[in-house]
Specification:
The chain has 246 residues and is α/β, with parallel strands linked by helices. It is built from five helices and 13 strands. The strands form three sheets. Strands 3-2-1-12-13-10 form a six-stranded mixed β-sheet. A five-stranded mixed β-sheet has the order 4-5-6-8-7, with helices on one face.
């Protein structure tokens, strides 16, 4: 079993296509998506269709829940930015249609998968204790443990913070897969076609990108491969450049 794990596509169908093209050349058996699928990017419907075609297993993220359930008529924007986001939310709902919105509403907050080594993997947008609260790279062990709660999973695949990492806390391996559609821009300028920044059976505790993080953008997309090799869990986190053939 070789899993392709991604998150936070945010309606950027072209970025998703680049990730899938790269992954298909290298091979995988199942696509797992840790939420935030369609909003606020430019191609929400195409994003949904690509995920459906890929038979992706998706869990519900913050923006997925907002698309499906938020009553925008009761929200009073406090800035032009918030007003623009609400307008885009309404547009995205129209583009997706009632059937897809109903499916977004029914997405489960977590998905559990037994592993070949006898362990268990949980897929969640934020954290096992609170699916809407992300585990970020700069949290202390105590903060992370509070978000793990009493969940029995051996591996947590998550997103939400948009910054990928691979870390062991309290005997649980936590793999944040970053973002496909809104990855933070790194100050590094040497990203290659597939930059294999980290691969191994042991978590390094380091960020995937080593440069200073600046603004969010779509210059690259994050993806993570997870598989069992000889009884060990191997994780490979990659960066896929955008704007040209991946």
């Amino acid at each position: 079993m070789r899993l392709l794990c991604v998150s936070d596509i945010h309606g950027h169908a072209d970025a998703l296509a680049a990730v899938l093209a790269t992954a298909e050349r290298r091979g995988y058996t199942q696509l797992l998506v840790a939420g935030d699928l369609c909003f606020p990017g430019p191609k929400p419907l195409e994003t949904w269709r690509r995920l459906t075609q890929a038979k992706a297993v998706c869990v519900q993220g913050v923006s997925d829940r907002a698309l499906a359930t938020l009553d925008i008529h009761n929200v009073r924007p406090r800035s032009e930015h918030e007003r623009a986001r609400l307008d885009r939310l309404a547009q995205t709902r129209t583009e997706l249609g009632e059937l897809i919105l109903a499916r977004l509403a029914r997405l489960a907050p977590t998905y559990r998968l037994p592993l070949e080594d006898g362990g268990e993997l949980v897929l969640v947008h934020g954290s096992p204790a609170d699916p809407l609260e992300p585990i970020s790279h700069d949290m202390t062990d105590e903060e992370v443990l509070s978000l793990l709660g009493d969940d029995p999973a051996d591996v947590v695949i998550c997103g939400g913070s948009h910054v990928p990492f691979d870390r062991m806390v309290g005997g649980v391996r936590i793999i944040n897969v970053g973002s496909v559609g809104e990855a933070p821009c790194s100050m590094r300028g040497d990203v290659r076609d597939v930059d294999r920044v980290r691969v191994g059976a042991r978590p390094s505790g380091e960020l995937v990108r080593s440069g200073a993080v600046s603004t969010f953008g779509t210059g690259h997309a994050d993806a993570t491969f997870v598989e069992i090799r000889a009884g060990e869990l191997w994780v490979e986190q990659v960066v896929v450049p955008l704007g040209r053939a991946a």
